[in-house]
Amino acid sequence: MADTSRLRKPVIAGNWKMYKTQREARDFFAEFQPLVAAATHCEIVVAPTFTALAASVEAAKGSAIGIAAQDVYWASEGAFTGEVSPRMLVEAGCRAVIIGHSERRQFFGETDESANRKVKAAVAAGLTPILCVGELLAEREAGDTQSVLERQFRGSLAALTTAEFSRIIMAYEPVWAIGTGRTATPEIAAEAHKFLRDLAARSFSAKDAASLRILYGGSVKPENIKGLMAQAEIDGALVGGASLDARQFAAIVNY
Ligand code: PGA
Predict the structure, then answer these.
(1) Is 101 a catalytic residue?
(2) Stated pTM of the model
(3) Range 138-147, long-range pairs (CB < 8 A, 24+ positions)
(4) Ligand 1 atom nearest residue 221's Cα
(5) Tens-of-pLDDT digits for all 255 residues of the chain?
(6) Domain boundaries, the chain
(7) Minimum-distance ligand 1 atom for the alpha carbon of 103
(8) Is 7-242 in CATH node 3.90.550.10?
């Protein structure tokens, strides 16, 4: 239901990770689109694999669903085997790109520095970066959550102008909640979001901080989305597993 009390328009984004062929993507959109056709209270984003991007853009044509990539490289072209550039994503029809996801950090050597370069290149190409940050379980248990978030925030957004910063979306994804069925409570998430927003105010401006959308990610399901969205600090969700099923993802969109 349209929630006009919100300052910021929510974003519900699906991260398909390494799931779905082109055919599966087309089947998903055929089922998903009618279920969210009336949803104007939020922006809807789906991030398929690189190979399913064009098919997804085609399938989502005429709808309000934006297609995002799951990663990008910072150079515009060159001898970088296996990489895809921002302008290639734009040409494929992408509007946004996930950057610095914890799986990229964990398994593929992503650092705050590489995420920073990617954020800048994405913004320069006209893409909206969805920059992910979040602490590991051991870091939370050691009481290091805020210092980890601050390090990731400063490192990944280093030397951005306020104009560049105003183009990004952030996602707070505590690593211990991703794919584990263990969601952060709405209160825990909201506390981290507030911390990030305060950092944004100190690093950029109060106005930019107030308009920054911060999504929560980590085991978001139809059953817990309402409670998360009841927090004023939570501006949407980055959904992994539950975004693979059209009905479940539609239920999250239509929270
Ligand atoms: P999950 O993944 O919803 O399956 O926990 C979230 C993410 O990794 O973006």
Answers:
(1) yes
(2) 0.96
(3) 140/174, 140/176, 145/174, 145/192, 146/195
(4) 3
(5) 445 568 899 999 999 999 999 999 999 999 999 999 999 999 999 999 999 999 999 999 999 999 999 999 999 999 999 999 999 999 999 999 999 999 999 999 999 999 999 999 999 999 999 999 999 999 999 999 999 999 999 999 999 999 999 999 999 999 999 888 888 899 999 999 999 999 999 999 999 999 999 999 999 999 999 999 999 999 999 999 999 999 999 999 999
(6) 7-242
(7) 8
(8) no
